[in-house]
Write a structure and sequence with these properties.
This protein has 299 residues and is α/β, with parallel strands linked by helices. It folds into 2 domains: 11-168, Multidrug-efflux Transporter Regulator, Chain: A, Domain 2 (Orthogonal Bundle), CATH 1.10.1660; 175-297, Cobalamin-binding domain (Rossmann fold), CATH 3.40.50.280. The protein contains 13 helices and 7 strands. The protein has helices spanning 11-18, 22-32, 49-63, 68-71, 76-89, 93-106, 109-123, 125-145, 151-170, 195-206, 220-229, 245-258, 288-297, and strands spanning 38-39, 45-46, 182-186, 210-215, 234-238, 263-267, 282-284. A 5-stranded parallel beta sheet has the order 4-3-5-6-7, with helices on both faces. Helix 10 (195-206) links the parallel strand 3 and strand 4 (210-215).
């Protein structure tokens, strides 16, 4: 069986994943040799998993005021020790997210659980979902899209997060509030990544709304049948993989025409490519905070 090649990152990939501008990375590379690119047979520069993990740790230290000239002199072990110290002391969401990425790449469940557990103790579950878990999951989506992680790594973190979300959802009040709205949550019939949908299910139940959770790969004719049985006020769907921008737009417009009485919320990594005017009953969700503010305004 052919062995899968290791991920190869361009400098643009590193910029997107670390938040450090490419020109800064080139300067750090030239002046301080913090990472050293390899080259393909056709002389194209690329970076490895180890380079990414090192850069994420360096970004944490630099963002907390440690000069790059000082970081460059530290051993890899010293860098890791300082990062772990900051992780224990800081409430900075970027630090927690970057550490979760490193934990995922290393398949380090103990470190992963500790970071999440400390965040939940400090800020509560909802704030951890909004500020850390969901942004981290979006970064996982970016890694998936660029081919930078293998399915096993994505499954590893998804299952850890799913376990926590399901426990939290089950812990919500069984009886909705008296003025509760009904939301149908579903994914299109080529979408398998339901973790984002579980985040939204938690937030809705937390606010006392009714949730009809349909999950993965829901055909449109099934959705019509569900609505004929149970009236709904809102739909919510996410797009992570498995659809082109053109097909996504076509799908959303068909939803809009098929369910004119419902407001249809949509979100996810893939929606960043969507442009142009949308029908009135379609509403793009830009972030968890955006969605929470909309939910808090619903009467």
């Amino acid at each position: 069986m052919k062995e899968k090649s290791m991920p190869k990152y361009s400098i643009k990939d590193l910029e997107e994943l670390s938040g450090i501008k490419a020109h800064t990375l080139r300067m750090w590379e030239k002046r301080h040799a913090i990472i050293t690119p390899q080259r393909t047979k056709t002389n194209i520069r690329f970076y490895s998993d180890d380079d990414l993990k090192r850069l994420l740790n360096i970004a944490i230290l630099n963002r907390h005021g440690i000069k790059i000239s000082h970081i460059a002199k530290l051993s890899q072990e010293s860098i890791k020790e300082k990062v772990m110290h900051l992780t224990n002391e800081t409430s900075d969401a970027f630090t927690q997210i970057e550490n979760l990425v490193v934990s995922m790449l290393d398949l380090d469940d103990i470190k992963f659980e500790k970071i999440l557990g400390d965040s939940i103790i400090k800020f509560g579950f909802e704030e951890s979902v909004v500020q850390i878990m969901h942004p981290f999951f979006e970064k996982v989506g970016l890694l998936w899209q660029t081919g930078s992680i293998i399915p096993a790594q994505e499954h590893f973190v998804s299952n850890l997060l799913r376990q926590k979300l399901i426990v939290a959802i089950d812990g919500q009040e069984a009886s909705p509030r008296s003025d509760a709205k009904t939301f149908i949550l579903f994914l299109h019939d080529n979408e398998l990544h339901e973790l984002g949908l579980l985040f939204y299910s938690y937030l809705l139940k937390r606010r006392g709304h009714r949730v009809i959770y349909l999950g993965q790969k829901v055909p449109l004719d099934n959705l019509k049948h569900i609505v004929s049985i149970r009236e709904a006020d809102y739909f919510l769907t996410t797009f992570t993989t498995g659809i082109s921008p053109e097909k996504m737009k076509e799908y959303l417009f068909y939803l809009s025409e098929s369910f004119p009485r419902q407001k249809i919320f949509f979100t996810g990594y893939q929606t960043s490519a969507l442009t142009g005017k949308l029908p009135e009953n379609l509403k793009k969700i830009n972030s968890m905070e955006h969605f929470c503010s909309i939910m808090d305004s619903i009467n």
